[in-house]
Design a protein that fits this description.
Layout: E1 3-12, E2 26-34, E3 39-44, H1 48-56, H2 67-71, H3 79-89, H4 98-118, H5 122-125, E4 133-140, H6 147-159, E5 165-168, H7 177-191, E6 197-200, H8 208-212, H9 215-220, E7 226-227, H10 235-242, E8 248-250, H11 258-266, E9 272-273, H12 282-295, E10 299-300, H13 308-319, E11 327-329, H14 335-339, E12 352-354, H15 367-373
Parallel strand pairs: 4-5, 4-11, 5-6, 6-7, 7-8, 8-9, 9-10
Antiparallel strand pairs: 1-2, 2-3, 4-12
Length: 376
């Protein structure tokens, strides 16, 4: 089997919500085609035109190559070999950032091909199907500004069978801390004591001193962990915040390499790695991060706010892990989120999502959605 083409396809929904922090309205699909008619599917949480340029670029020299030219004619059945081929052939211009995004999307598609070729779900190829279902949590964003509105948002999430939620910060949370505390209390009352609440700071504050203002109410309402607490360059700030008793999750807002996660674990005091599988080099990249986390007794909870393609990839990764972890289940209103694949990956009444059992990722591209939203 040989690779005959690598495509990066920009899909986009023009919608008023495209301006908020929600990547589900703009996506970069990756298709890897072979001479035996098997096509691998992936996607990338990134800037689609930039990813397309990286993939289709003509080679500048042997350490600055376009990924499509690099892969044409290669055997796709060994994704890890091709991952290193891509990484080493782009180290002059890559190693981090956009290049890792592009490699990640292609890597997902290569593992999809390998699973289809061997007739196995990806989870069985990367460690075994240790968990058949994963407990989900859903994001509430933007958060209403009054307790009744927040209670209604939590009820909406629970109607989707979600048992756990994430609240995403806005800068206005600091305008009136008591009002913000009441919003947290409303969410906790509605969800009940058993449900997990995650707080995503999402860069709403810039300093340790600002961030610590929320800690009393985070403790009162028993949040599970604090996500993206500070700008990622502030490693020392993360370390200082980690000393105040609330686990910190990092990585979803820009870390792309295992060594960056190692720094955050060792110097930043972070308890939870939150890689986006499409941004850190796909299954091959995220497995390196998981190995580093395991060696340091840290957790890995994947980020995922794209379409069912990424949800499927995260399910396979999490299913292969020794201990079950929470699955981020995007609640975006974008049609790309819900219509990009023919499969729906629903949440069961017990709050869990089944890991796809068909070969590869277990999801297929909805051609009608692609035709409707593909950028010309």
């Amino acid at each position: 089997m040989k690779i005959t083409d690598v495509q990066a396809i920009h899909v986009r929904v023009e919608d008023p919500n495209i301006g908020i922090f929600d990547g589900s309205y703009d996506d970069c699909l990756i298709l890897v085609h072979t001479d035996e008619g098997i096509t691998g599917l992936g996607e990338v949480e990134s800037l689609a035109p930039a990813i397309a340029a990286i993939i289709s670029a003509k080679d500048a020299h042997n350490h600055a190559r376009g990924l499509r030219n690099l892969l044409l004619g290669c055997d796709p059945s060994e994704p890890e070999t091709l991952w290193h081929r891509m990484y080493e052939a782009t180290d002059y211009v890559g190693r981090r950032g956009l290049m890792m995004h592009a490699i990640g999307g292609i890597d997902l598609a290569l593992w999809d091909i390998k699973g289809k070729l061997e007739g196995k779900p990806v989870a069985e190829l990367i460690g075994g199907m240790r968990h058949e279902r994963l407990e989900a949590y859903g994001t509430i964003y933007p958060l209403e500004r009054n307790p009744d509105g927040v209670a209604r948002q939590v009820r909406d999430a629970m109607r989707m069978n979600l048992k756990n939620i994430k609240l995403v910060a806005d800068p206005w949370w600091f305008d009136d801390l008591e009002r913000t505390a009441n919003l947290f209390r409303s969410a906790r009352r509605e969800l009940g004591k058993a449900g997990k609440i995650i707080v995503d700071a999402a860069l709403a504050y810039q300093t340790v001193e600002q961030g610590l203002l929320l800690y009393p109410i985070c403790r009162e309402t028993s949040i599970e962990f604090l996500e993206a607490p500070l700008p990622l360059d502030d490693v020392e700030g993360h370390r200082r915040m980690s000393e105040h008793g609330i686990p910190l999750g990092v990585g979803d807002l820009g870390l792309t390499h295992v060594n960056e996660f190692v720094e955050m674990m060792e110097r930043g005091g972070c308890s939870i790695c939150q890689p986006d599988i499409t941004m850190v080099g796909g299954f091959t990249g995220i497995r390196a991060i998981a190995a580093a986390a395991d060696a340091r007794a840290k957790r890995v909870i994947t980020h995922g706010y794209k379409t069912n393609i990424e949800i499927a990839a995260n399910l396979h990764f999490l299913a292969s892990r020794p201990a079950p972890e929470l699955l981020e289940y995007s609640t975006s209103k974008s049609p790309l989120r819900w219509e990009m694949t023919n499969e729906t990956l629903p949440i069961a009444p017990d709050g869990t999502v089944a890991v796809p059992r068909t070969p590869g990722l277990g999801v297929t591209l909805n051609q009608q959605t692609l035709a409707r939203y593909r950028m010309k």
